[in-house]
Amino acid sequence: MKKNFRSLNQRLPFRLSFIITIVVTIVVVSLFLRIYHIGTEDMWLDEANSVLLSERTLLDIVSGLKLDSSPPLFYYLLHYWMKLFGHTETALRSLSALFGVLLVIVLFFAGSNLFTREVGVYSALIATLLPIQVMYSQEVRMYTLLPLTSVLSMYFFMKFIREEKRNYLVGYALATIACLYTHNYGFFLLPAQVLMLLYPPSKPRTWIAWLISIGCIGLVYAFWLPIFLFQLRNGTHYAWIRFFWNRHGFWGSLLNTLQSFSPGGTQLPYVPLNELSWNPLLPVVFMVILLLFGIIQFIIRRQTIFYWLLLYLLVPLIIAGLFSLVSLPIYLAGRCDQLVFPAFCLFLAVSIHSIRPKGLQYGAIIVLMVFSFGTLNDYYRISIKSGDRKIASTIKGNLRPGDAIVCTSFTRASLEYYLREDKKRIRLFSYPREMANHLGNQDRKTLLKDPEKLIREAKLLEKEIRMGGSQSGRLFLLYVPNKVNNFLWSQLEENVPAHQIRSMGEFKQSLLNPLVEIFLINFRGDVYNQAGEV
């Protein structure tokens, strides 16, 4: 007996040290993948918009978000992060990378405590490797903070209804508040949590304690509630989401979520990530096969924790889909569904852990690594967020004090970020004028319903620039050819002689890829020769 105890005692430290070594290695790999080439890609529209918004005062951030669909937590954190580390692409994106690495660490502890240590290791490894989170860890957006706060909320909730300890309830309340203040999708955790309380039926005191915590969460959220309700009434912001919802619908959106979570699956145009070059369908099929193992385990074991994990994974997506069917289109696959990304990692880890013999588990991990690194190799190698730097450098190299710049469509946010050191030398305008209120939102269909308004705006803009809006008498026009911007171009073409207009080249805007032509216009009568010189 003593011999067995001694041998067990000898094995435990070795086992523990081995696990620690594995976890530390995973964390180091996750950090490397998230900081590798982090500053090489251009600061594209959504990122630049986040930065410009976060540069404001705290109260002005709230005012700006009225025309958006996000709460302020990420922007507040970015506000102070910039004060500490600056405005370079690397400094700005490192905040998201930090949250991405923390997500890996939290998933290890959540998987180990809710299931087994092996499930914790697999969960952390999956979160480390899946390209969608590596990509979001290199974007100045809240899509690494969202899954981090989400898994903390669900982990503390599950621990509370299992053990009924007060500290878990406090952790749950704080994490849920953070999630709700990170993204409006945080609300979709609550229906899943109600279903967890219903099965197996929780004790009345558990319900009462949870309702009290919900009351506290509600009191803290009450400060943001009026802005949230205002956002819901802003149908213009959701117009572009409606385009994708109408195209893919409920089931197509669920499929797109699976594809975006799969390492190398096909991504939607607003997700700056390459699909697997040699077969984007193969990793999706592989994910489906692995998930089936987890579903089989759920059917065989019927353990409560499996049921809870399925609720965490599916209920928020289903609620978002149903809400999109009956009200506003809000289901945005590959982006907002990052709320349930931790549940996907945990479920996939449970599925892999259920495979027998154990050698097949390692085989599944190797296949997952092959798909992930194949995708990440293309992600690091092929730039799909290039163009905005070149646009900005072209203008910067030709600037004179007092120049005016007119931005059309979505050209302003990135330009303003890259010309932030030249703000005192220039004056920026947007066409249509309302684009200055939210640099990442335009409903062209609604704008084209009132062409007379667009004509009036074009005339007023030209008049304002001629009457002093441009102190140098020069105007840079970032022209995106479409039906809305054609009204401005027609106005300028009609009133400015052709020899006073110089084309500085055509460019592609980062990720969005519309054609952007830069024109330099001299209103004071300077004439360009054939070489483009005055």
Keywords:
534 residues, alpha/beta, 2 domains, 5-stranded mixed beta sheet, 22 helices
Distance between the termini: 96 Å
Query: What number of domains?
Result: 2
**Averaged pLDDT:** 93
Task: Figure out the total of helices.
Answer: 22
The total count of strands amounts to: 5
Largest sheet: 5 strands, mixed
Low-pLDDT segments, ≥5 res: 1-11
Which structural category fits the helices and strands?
Answer: alpha/beta
Helix percentage: 55-70%
Strand order across the biggest sheet? 2-1-3-5-4
Strand content: 5-15%
Secondary-structure element string: HHHHHHHHHHHHHHHHHHEHEHHEHEE
Oligomer: single chain
Shape: elongated
Report on the architecture of this protein:
The structure is a single chain. The protein has two domains: 16-381, no CATH class; 388-522. Helices cover 62% and strands 6% of the residues. The protein contains 22 helices and five strands. Strands 2-1-3-5-4 form a five-stranded mixed β-sheet, sandwiched between helices. Strand 4 (501-508) and strand 5 form a beta hairpin. The longest helix has 34 residues, at 2-35. It is elongated. The chain starts with a helix and ends in a 12-residue tail after the last strand.
In short:
The protein contains 22 helices and five strands.
Give the topology, please.
Layout lengths: L1 H34 L9 H10 L3 H8 L7 H13 L3 H26 L2 H13 L1 H6 L8 H19 L2 H15 L8 H10 L5 H18 L3 H8 L6 H23 L19 H21 L2 H23 L14 H13 L4 H24 L6 H9 L6 E6 L3 H7 L7 E6 L12 H4 L3 H19 L4 E6 L6 H10 L5 E8 L6 E8 L12
Parallel strand pairs: 1-2, 1-3
Antiparallel strand pairs: 3-5, 4-5
Helix pairs in contact: 1-5, 1-6, 2-4, 2-19, 5-6, 5-8, 6-16, 8-9, 8-10, 9-11, 10-15, 13-15, 14-16, 15-16, 21-22
